[in-house]
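Thread: assembly with ligand

MN 10:42: here's the input set. Chains plus the small molecule as SMILES. Want everything predicted jointly, not piecewise.
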Amino acid sequence: MKSYHADERGYYGEFGGAFIPEMLYPNCEELRQNYLRIMQEPSFKDEFHQLLKDYVGRPTPLYFAKRLSEKYNTKIYLKREDLCHTGAHKVNNTIGQILMAKKLGKNRIIAETGAGQHGVATATVCALMGIECVVYMGEIDIARQAPNVARMKMLGAEVRPATSGSKTLKDATNEAIRDWINNPVDTHYIIGSVVGPHPYPDMVARFQSVISEEIKNQLQEKEGRENPDYVVACVGGGSNAAGAFYHYLDTPEVGIIAVEAAGKGIHSGESAATSALGKIGIIHGSKTLLMQTQDGQITEPYSISAGLDYPGVGPMHAHLYASGRGEFISITDDDAMNAGMELCKLEGIIPAIESSHALAIFEDRKFNPDDVVVINLSGRGDKDLQNYIDYFKL
Amino acid sequence: MNRIKQKLQEDKKILSIYFTAGYPHLDDTIKIIQDLEKNGVDLIEIGLPFSDPLADGPTIQASSTAALKNGMNTALLFEQLKDIRKTVSIPLILMGYFNPVLQYGVEEFCAKCEEIGIDGIILPDLPLDVYQEEYEVIFKKHGLINVFLITPQTSDERIKDIDSASDGFIYMVSSASTTGAKQGFGKEQSDYFDRIADMNLNNPQIVGFGISNAETFGQATQKAKGAIIGSAFIKHLTENGVNGIGDFVKQIR
Ligand SMILES: Cc1ncc(COP(=O)(O)O)c(C=O)c1O
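BT 11:07: finished. Tokens for the full assembly:
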């Protein structure tokens, strides 16, 4: 049967691989040779699951959103990743990777961050384990995400400004990769999404796959079946989506819907809808869909949501798009903001603006009354309060 | 015979200079190449600027950003170089990242290189296995030498694989780092230089990263066949424009 998972060389169809300079080869190779073995060790599994339970607060609820369902005349469940410690799904991955780093004998952690959610999740697990932590963050993002910068500092991380290029997430990622080149032996790089060279996309997807593992069990309990008709998630790099889709990838009767940020409109010149605007190329060591000029220079995306503001998508998603397995929808800033506000009013939940993009599909995408639609609510809106205040003049 | 191979047979240490095309000004490319040759440089690496140069330190990053802002792109560089072989005879290598080459089309890119008289290509993020499976045939068809990198962390086994995949020289990265001039070499580097020399590889090695003056050039070429200067030359261009290229070269050797 055709599979939508990575093959052993890290390819999803024609996407993926490890397009890295030789300087990174030993680092990635060490990880590639060990990650599956380590993840299967009982001591690793036990510690991972214990921390997810006691520290992160898993399993997160699968909540039937009654009023939202009534409004859109279909059965909508919310997977409550917003209730994770630190406020988003990102911590599932950082818990996994910090344990991986320890098994590999690393004593220094680096990470990149855009909005700061992954930076906070990384700083958190480093504090938990007492490991040195350096987070790269674009100079522009540091200025517009001050509360998360403060959180990282309180958690003991050093936040280093990325001053090159466009001074945002892709440049922070470049700086983290350069740091890794300069510190190849003692340092582990905790990438924050299903992007980067093999084995990162597969490893991060496996750590996030706990999301769909839980959905299966919870749906069985609530609906008497493991499979929803649709599972929906927003895609920046694609880690919350990879986790929500993971155990359904090879189950064709489950529809997969990936929601990208259209920004001010796909053709406005200010967008992050990679599947619509991207072409195959290489970014951060991975062959994937990517927004770029005709000359192959990577372009700067735009979205009101900093977490969706990435010019590529993980190779799993590029393949879901190219193969037609996934349905890709893009949502504008305005529609996302309104959907976020609607969830506040109908369900008493303030979502992250990233997650609001996934919630916004119901205006245009119609479902049958007896369809079961699971939305991955990837994060909570605390970090976005200033954005909501400015947008709605609260 | 390919000009790189011919040059490597000469009984001398090779001085190779890297610069970013389109920097400091868009039209400086030809003048820089001609002046470098006139002043005795053996080999030139012409950098194709990229928006996201992962393996480069601040100096080359800044030159790439400036070159792109000046309007440099792959097609324009080829246009600038189209008559280069009327005036320049030393080997020329194009160095860049894989994505712009992929967008241009690897086959078209290689054909254009052959037409102009480019002798070799360095694409640090095109991995060995992908090159061998998909592109080696194309490079060879167009007479292009592909240059691979090794670093102090590269295992002996992999160095041997790279040596047998190479057909020209091996680019020996001096230390675990991105590009950029440093303060001299220490014991770690001399041990590494010795280790590689003792492997008796088929391909000569040219050392790059961290070479900025006569002293580091001398240290790097004690065992290796040659050395590459990049960031230090870019700094010279930043400070002096295209003036005094001869003075820069003479202070190296
Ligand atoms: C709440 C939330 N959702 C989604 C994302 C997007 O990342 P990914 O696509 O990897 O899930 C982020 C990234 O910061 C986030 O904070």
